TrEMBL record:
<dbReference type="Pfam" id="PF01547">
    <property type="entry name" value="SBP_bac_1"/>
</dbReference>
<dbReference type="InterPro" id="IPR006059">
    <property type="entry name" value="SBP"/>
</dbReference>
<dbReference type="InterPro" id="IPR050490">
    <property type="entry name" value="Bact_solute-bd_prot1"/>
</dbReference>
<dbReference type="InterPro" id="IPR006311">
    <property type="entry name" value="TAT_signal"/>
</dbReference>
<dbReference type="GO" id="GO:0042597">
    <property type="term" value="C:periplasmic space"/>
</dbReference>
<comment type="similarity">
    <text>Belongs to the bacterial solute-binding protein 1 family.</text>
</comment>
<keyword id="KW-0574">Periplasm</keyword>
<protein>
    <submittedName>
        <fullName>Substrate-binding domain-containing protein</fullName>
    </submittedName>
</protein>
């Protein structure tokens, strides 16, 4: 990057550029269009042409809209550097419908969507039929895509399929981890702190470091302490809804953090791994936390959590870092802190392993040469240091080590420190990149929410039902080596 500045006759090293971004990100004076003009015009096969592109993203999901809203900056960049014009059209669908929208189009080898913002778990389902472009050769030919990612978790979540291989099918559009949003005005109130000490004989957690060391037992005390229905206040909001993966993500997080597993990714074995007494105990505990949450919490997903938190109805909320701009608004911005979610277990044995969120960019494998070239140019532009900083300034979560390790990053957004903390190795993980993800998730959400709403009484029975059904799905697909055991013939919700 410094070489490009030298060619333009400007002594503006990257360190200076990062300092110029400050806590508010890139200033107007150093905005992306200005930086783009530092590049000299280069020969390009599309020079003088106009290309129309289309991106498919997630409706109502801020990180997707941030990505597409920045496309005019890319258009300005390629016009000045490469001499071609590009315009972008956008299509969107909710999380629950987006995969089907993409798959229906790609199955016909259509160029309807040239670039897609995919959920991370869809990599297998999109890659196996050959619908999206394998990126290994593209990365090898483009130094701008040979990034040092913040942790292996980034590669495992947004890029690699099959798991554990070096086959790359996606590049991170939005990094995302779970975080705990906490009412700072409550936990740092001296009167609340004194009352908490008197009741529990422990300090009310009130700093990032306090929550970094907090286990679930002590977090439950925080939830209990702030549950005051008569005052319209409850201790927490977590997700329990049957929609998409809303109940699954916190449950998997609690299972992993408690020492449980959900499957053997190498063999596809689920029966006997997911359905254990230990995982059933986690389900029972998670259900018991409903007493600290507002009425109707079994229907809580992302939007419902945003509503109750911004309305001041809950003291804490487990939510995605990616929706920080919605969780922290003009009214509550001085009242909120974002910290790591609790560990499970006690002492040195306590663990914190939460579900990854976020989405990768994937490229339509059926793009013609011109659209493919624009898509690759777009990826190269997206991972420029100045683009990453601009994205962070607007509320997005980049994944490259250079951006996240800069001295300014933690202060750009209130959730950045917690996001980066949870992106460290071993603190977050993704699940199921398998092509049968959608079928497995639907079955699982049915079972989990059946127990949370009281329709099914036995947590272990629900896990047996899920494990047997998922084992059958993967056995039929040839992923699991063993068919479901004879016990599975007698399970039901």
């Amino acid at each position: 990057m410094e070489e490009s500045y030298k060619r333009a006759g400007l002594a503006l090293p990257r360190r200076t550029l990062l300092k110029g971004a400050g806590a508010a990100g890139l200033s107007t004076a150093l905005g992306a269009p200005f930086i783009n003009r530092l590049y000299a015009m280069e020969a390009h096969p599309l020079a003088g042409k106009k290309i129309d592109m289309n991106i498919l993203g997630i409706a109502g999901w801020l990180p997707s809209s941030l990505g597409v809203k920045m496309s005019p900056l890319f258009a300005d960049y390629v016009k000045q550097r490469y001499g071609y014009d590009v315009t972008f059209g956008f299509a969107e669908a909710p999380f629950s419908d987006l995969f089907q929208k993409a798959a229906t189009s790609l199955a016909t080898k259509s160029q309807e969507y040239n670039i897609i913002i995919s959920d991370s778990q869809w990599l297998g389902a999109l890659a196996k039929p050959g619908w999206i472009l394998k990126l290994n050769d593209i990365i090898a030919k483009n130094k701008g895509l040979q990034l040092d990612w913040y942790s292996q978790t980034v590669i495992d979540t947004y890029m690699a399929y099959p798991d554990g291989t070096k086959d790359v099918w996606g590049l991170p559009q939005e990094g995302d981890t779970k975080a705990l949003y906490v009412r700072k005005d409550l936990v740092q109130d001296p009167k609340e702190q004194a009352a908490f000490m008197a009741k529990y004989n422990m300090k009310l957690p009130s700093t990032f470091e306090d929550y970094e060391n907090l286990n679930a037992d002590d977090y439950e005390k925080v939830m209990e302490f702030f549950t005051r229905p008569e005052k319209g206040l409850w201790g927490a909001a977590w997700q329990y809804s049957r929609v998409y993966d809303f109940c699954t993500c916190p449950l998997f997080s609690a299972m992993w953090s408690s020492g449980g597993e959900i499957w053997d990714a190498k063999t596809g074995q689920i029966e006997g791994v997911l359905n254990t007494d230990a995982n059933a105990a986690v389900m029972e505990r998670y259900k018991s936390w409903l007493k600290y949450m507002p009425p109707g919490a079994t229907n809580y997903g992302i939007a419902e959590e945003i509503d109750v938190f911004t309305q001041g109805k809950v003291a804490t909320c487990l939510q995605w870092a990616a929706v920080g701009l919605a969780m922290i608004n003009a009214e509550n911005k001085d009242k909120v802190m974002v910290v790591p979610p609790p560990k499970f277990g006690k002492g040195a044995e306590a663990k914190r392993i939460y579900c990854m969120g976020g989405q990768p960019w994937v490229i339509n494998a059926f793009n013609d040469d011109a659209k493919m070239r624009v898509a690759i140019d777009f990826m190269n532009w997206w991972y420029l240091p100045e683009t990453a900083k601009e994205y962070a300034k607007r509320g997005g979560n980049p994944c490259d080590k250079a951006t996240l390790s800069s001295s300014e990053f933690d202060d750009v957004n209130p959730w950045n420190r917690a996001y980066k903390f949870m992106l460290e190795p071993g603190r977050s993980r993704d699940f199921w990149h398998d092509p049968k993800y959608s079928e497995m998730l639907s079955l699982q959400q049915e079972g989990f929410t059946s127990f949370m709403t009281g329709q099914s009484k036995s947590a272990r029975g629900v896990l047996d039902y899920i494990a047997c059904g998922q084992q059958q799905i993967l056995y039929d697909a040839g992923t699991a080596k063993k068919e479901p055991s004879g016990v599975c013939g007698n399970v039901s919700l």
